[in-house]
Amino acid sequence: MSKIEIIGLGAGDIDQLPLGLYKKLVNQKNTVYTRTKDHPVIRSLEEEGVLFTSFDWMYEEEANFGDVYERIVGSLIEKGRKESIIYTVPGHPMLAEKTVQLLLDQKEVEVDILGGQSYLDDLFTTLQIDPIEGFQFVDGTSFKRNQLNYHNHIIFCQVYDRFIASEVKLALLEDLPPEFEIKVVHAAGSEQESIRTMPLEELDHSMEISNLTSIYIPPAPENLLQHTFSRLKEVIAVLRGPDGCPWDREQTHESLREYAVEEVYELIEAIDKQDDENIVEELGDMLLQVMLHSQIGEDDGFFTVDDVIRSITTKMIHRHPHVFADVSVDSVDQVYKNWDELKREEKGEARTSLLDGVPNHLPSLAKAYKLQKKAAKVGFNWDNADDIWDKLNEEIDEVKEAIQSGNEEEMEKEFGDVLFVLANLTRYYKINPEIALNRSNQKFYSRFQFIERQIQEKNLDINQVSLEKMDYFWNLAKERE
């Protein structure tokens, strides 16, 4: 039965090739297949008469490495069905070699791994690092930034050319400063070995980039990792710890409630002002609330921030089957409908009314908006805005009647009805009444401050200024806007 025998050529020159593998290759009469000829061992073996056929040409024809590897494996399987062949790869076959993994996954042709020398031992020696301190080996052609652990020694392999080096650099610059020092290692452990230390920003400027190149990223100091979630979690744990801050240590879920409300409104204000810098700050303050509550939950032994994240991640996946499963949607309305159905499924029998789930502590205007929005989903809703305007006029007339009667309780009820209808009217026009009113509050605050400044500049007493004069300044404030 024919088979594919895989040999690793090591990471350096022919002196690193084990004697048994060397003998097998030089005594081979048939063509030896190799992923790439760009390797010093192949050049030496060719001088001794070994014939090689490479797949380098496939790299020119495909847009990504995944397709290249699939084609190489397909070609090897086709040849391996007919006769036994030898296939060589750089380094060790079981170290960052995708074609070998694909060959091992298939069942059509038997595969034998004959061995080879891993370059990791030489690399650790060259860099003088101990992997037990924490080590991450990353494929430069296929990785995600969120996989990187900057507390570890990180080594990028498969950095074949400047393009890949540039992709690695751009990913790292998301987390590390341009001047952060890295090392570029070429042909570790061989006579051609070289190691260069350079700023991260110069990575893709290096001329020594080939399939023998590795990029080493040393562990980053904590001051460069302030933007990471793990560092934030650590800081909050310290603040709540025995040697932390007295204020943070004494907080409870109940004591933090008022701050949660404040932070939401401060974020809304920053959004209304279109102040990106302040939006970042206020989002951070809201995240702080999440982290403090989560740390309290962990300290009390009930839950951790991992439970919080797991809960929302699971919810988002479950409520978006049109993204994470095979459900099709044709419109945003269909998304809303699916969302509500899935939400009811999650809550089970806990809710007996369609109006359940509106928080009791919502501001009254926002609560009116939410209640009517829920009722409208089952058709309890006016068909057009004219009907709502008519209802508003009707409620205003009833307010006037209550005022004429002098009944304060009735006046309160009728004013409430007016506000309730206004909330419904804003919902029809897709305006959140709470946000709209908050903007008007801010506008009033800004204009009235302008009036105060104008009066102060003119050395007048605001208590003595006429309404007409203040109205004049008010109009000036409007013009300035």
Residue ranges: pLDDT <50 for 5 or more in a row?
A: none
Number of strands: 10
Structural class: alpha/beta
Strand order of the largest sheet: 3-2-4-1-5
- Helical percentage: 40-55%
Secondary structure elements and pairings:
Elements lengths: L2 E6 L10 H8 L5 E3 L5 H8 L4 E3 L1 H6 L3 H18 L2 E5 L8 H8 L4 E6 L4 H8 L7 E5 L13 E5 L4 H11 L8 E6 L7 E6 L13 E5 L11 H12 L5 H5 L6 H16 L3 H24 L5 H14 L2 H4 L7 H16 L16 H13 L8 H21 L2 H21 L4 H25 L9 H14 L1
Parallel strand pairs: 1-4, 1-5, 2-3, 2-4, 6-7
Antiparallel strand pairs: 7-10, 8-9, 8-10
Helix pairs in contact: 4-5, 8-11, 10-11, 15-17, 16-17, 18-19
Task: Write up this protein.
The protein has 481 residues and is of the alpha/beta class. Helices cover 52% and strands 10% of the residues. It has helices spanning 19-26, 40-47, 56-61, 65-82, 98-105, 120-127, 162-172, 229-240, 246-250, 257-272, 276-299, 305-318, 321-324, 332-347, 364-376, 385-405, 408-428, 433-457, 467-480, and strands at 3-8, 32-34, 52-54, 85-89, 110-115, 135-139, 153-157, 181-186, 194-199, 213-217. The chain has a five-stranded parallel beta sheet with strand order 3-2-4-1-5. Helix 16 (385-405) packs antiparallel against helix 17 (408-428). The longest helix is centred in the last third of the chain and has 25 residues, at 433-457. The radius of gyration is 35 Å and the shape is elongated. The model has no long low-confidence stretch (mean pLDDT 89).
